[in-house]
From TrEMBL:
The name this protein goes by in its record: Nicotinamidase-like amidase
Record-annotated Isochorismatase-like domain positions: 30-205
Alphabetically ordered keywords of this record: Hydrolase, Plasmid
Chain intervals for the UniProt region annotation (Disordered): 1-22
Origin superkingdom: Bacteria
Organism the protein comes from: Deinococcus peraridilitoris (strain DSM 19664 / LMG 22246 / CIP 109416 / KR-200)
Gene Ontology MF terms in the entry: hydrolase activity
Name of a matching Pfam family: Isochorismatase
Length: 338
C-alpha cells in the first residue's frame, strides 16, 4: 500500500469476498452464527421470557432456528453458537453490572448465570459434535469472544446471523462483522427481541443498511443449496427484493456490459416504481429460487441514480479521486495519526 493510500485505508475496510460474484452462499466460506439460543430467552420460565415471548412466538424463532441450523449442518456449513454466561467474578470483581443498561438488567434478573438451566441451550437447539461453541460473551458484541479466530481459521467471508436479540447482540455483532468486511446476512424470522417495536426497527430499518441482505430461513436454505439445474445468475422473470425484503419489481431484461455501459438489469415501472430502473448487476448480492436480492432497501431504492443506463463514465465519477491526487483528506487537514 502506498503512503498516499495508507492515509485513507485500514485493513478493516475491505470487503472480504472481493470481486466474487457468487449469488449463493459459497461453500467453505459461509458460516451460520446463532447468538444466545438459550432457555432464559427462548423457554417458558426463562429469566427474560416475559420480555421475549411475544416476538419468539409471533416470529416462530425456535422452529426457524432449528430449520436453519439443521439445513446448515446438512450442507456442511459450520454452525457457531454464541451464548452468554456470567459468574460471580464478572460482577463482584469486574463490575459488569455498571457497564451498560442491559448489563444491569441481566444482573438484576439473574440472567445467564453460568451452569444454570437458564444459560443452557434450548432443548430443541442442542449443539452437535460438529458445531462450534464460542466462549461466552459478556456484552452485546460476540466479536469480543474467540469468534474472530474461528472465522479466520475456517476461511469465512460470508456470515449468516440469527438468534437473540434483534436490537442488541444480533445487531451489534452483525454491525461489527460488516465493519470488518464480512458479507452479512440476517435471518429475520429466526431472530427475536424483547419487544415487537425493537424487532421491527432492527429488521426493517437497521439491518437493511448495516448488512448486505435480510432473508428468511426458506430463502437461506434455497440459496445454500439451489435445486438441481437451477441457475446461480439473475434470470428474466426473477422477483427483485431490496435488502429490507421489500419487493421492487420483476427483471424484464439483463444487459451485458458494453464498451460504454456496465452490466445491469432492467426492472420496468409499475405499481411500485414510477419509472424504469436500471440496476447495476453488481448490486445483486444473492439469489434464492427465482428471487434475487439487491443490497439497497426498497424504502430508498427510488432515491438511487438508477433511472438511466449505468455508463462507465458515470461509474468513474462514483469512484472518487485516487489517493495520490488528494492533497488533504478532509479538505484542509490530514488524519493526525498516532
Amino acid at each position: 500500500m502506498t503512503q498516499e493510500a495508507d492515509r485513507f485505508n485500514t485493513a478493516e475496510s475491505n470487503y472480504k469476498p472481493g470481486n466474487q460474484r457468487d449469488l449463493s452462499f459459497p461453500r467453505g466460506q459461509t458460516a451460520l452464527l446463532v447468538i444466545d439460543p438459550v432457555n432464559d430467552f427462548l423457554s417458558e420460565g426463562g429469566a427474560a421470557w416475559e420480555m421475549t415471548k411475544s416476538t419468539v412466538k409471533t416470529v416462530g424463532v425456535v422452529e426457524n432456528l432449528k430449520r436453519a441450523i439443521q439445513g446448515a449442518r446438512e450442507h456442511g456449513v459450520p454452525v457457531l453458537l454464541g451464548p452468554m454466561a456470567f459468574t460471580e467474578e464478572d460482577y463482584a470483581e469486574h463490575n459488569l453490572q455498571r457497564l451498560t443498561a442491559i448489563n444491569r438488567v441481566m444482573f438484576e434478573h439473574k440472567m445467564f448465570l453460568a451452569g444454570s438451566w437458564g444459560a443452557d441451550f434450548h432443548p430443541e437447539l442442542q449443539p452437535q459434535q460438529s458445531d462450534i461453541i464460542l466462549k461466552p460473551h459478556k456484552v452485546n458484541d460476540v466479536f469480543g469472544t474467540d469468534l474472530p479466530e474461528h472465522l479466520e481459521r475456517l476461511g469465512i467471508t460470508h456470515l449468516v446471523i440469527a438468534g437473540m436479540t434483534a436490537n442488541l447482540c444480533v445487531e451489534s455483532t452483525g454491525r461489527h462483522a460488516a465493519e470488518l468486511g464480512y458479507d452479512v446476512t440476517y435471518l429475520t424470522n429466526a431472530i427475536g427481541s424483547e419487544s415487537m417495536p425493537s424487532y421491527e426497527a432492527a429488521v426493517h430499518v437497521n439491518y437493511p443498511l448495516i448488512g448486505n441482505v435480510t432473508m428468511q430461513v426458506d430463502e437461506f436454505l434455497l440459496a445454500l443449496a439451489p435445486s438441481e439445474g437451477a441457475s446461480n445468475t439473475v434470470q428474466v422473470g426473477d422477483t427483485v427484493l431490496g435488502s429490507d425484503h421489500g419487493e421492487i419489481g420483476t427483471v424484464q431484461e439483463i444487459i451485458a456490459a458494453t464498451e460504454d455501459a456496465e452490466a445491469h438489469l432492467i426492472v420496468p415501472r409499475g405499481v411500485i416504481l414510477h419509472k424504469d430502473m436500471f440496476i447495476p448487476l453488481d448490486a445483486v448480492v444473492r439469489r434464492a429460487g427465482t428471487t434475487v436480492f439487491v443490497n439497497v432497501p426498497k424504502l430508498i431504492v427510488g432515491n438511487m441514480p438508477w433511472s438511466e443506463r449505468p455508463l462507465h463514465a458515470k461509474r468513474r465519477e462514483h469512484l472518487g479521486p485516487r489517493a495520490v491526487d488528494v492533497t488533504n483528506v478532509y479538505g484542509s487537514k490530514d488524519p493526525s495519526g498516532s
